Amino acid sequence: MASRRRMLLKVIILGDSGVGKTSLMNQYVNRKFSNQYKATIGADFLTKEIQFEDRLFTLQIWDTAGQERFQSLGVAFYRGADCCVLVYDVNVMKSFENLNNWREEFLIQASPSDPENFPFVVIGNKIDVDNGNSRVVSEKKARAWCASKGNIPYFETSAKEGINVEAAFQCIAKDALKNEPEDEM
């Protein structure tokens, strides 16, 4: 009988400070949202057991600090990642414009063996804010950016309301799995 050992999938969440990385992770893993903003210091991670095609996996989700002063921690955190999630706030143009920097930084630090095909997922968070009236990044603009980077999957979420969070993480897990060597499958 095949071994039933659990496979670990390492997912890194990157994006500017305050875009909701920790909230997305907490909503997905614990189904909880807190209005108390607390900056992540360095990095933190949560795990969630997931089942996919009759196999159990442990999704290890690394939440990194958005502040530049912690970027030097990059190498250690990024190494061995199976998928990278880029998060921005649909109400803050700068957080969207910085996605490129986060993506580049990840590719430099993690130095994946096949950078062209490394799985990224982009999340536009906080679609619930002000009923969408303070939104400055259109879905069309975000999708165009994702298309220009090799058709990166794109999700719009509200970590607060729990909108689309589950779907985004299912895609993240699926993409992380694609990155695993066949012999481990």
TrEMBL record:
It is found in: Endomembrane system. One of its GO terms (cellular component) is endomembrane system. This is Ras-related protein Rab7. PROSITE patterns: RAB, RAS, RHO. It holds the Pfam family Ras. GO terms for molecular function: GTP binding; GTPase activity. Keywords: GTP-binding, Lipoprotein, Membrane, Nucleotide-binding, Prenylation, Protein transport, Transport. It is a lipid-anchor. NCBIfam families: small_GTP (TIGR00231). GO terms for biological process: protein transport. Belongs to the small GTPase superfamily. Rab family.
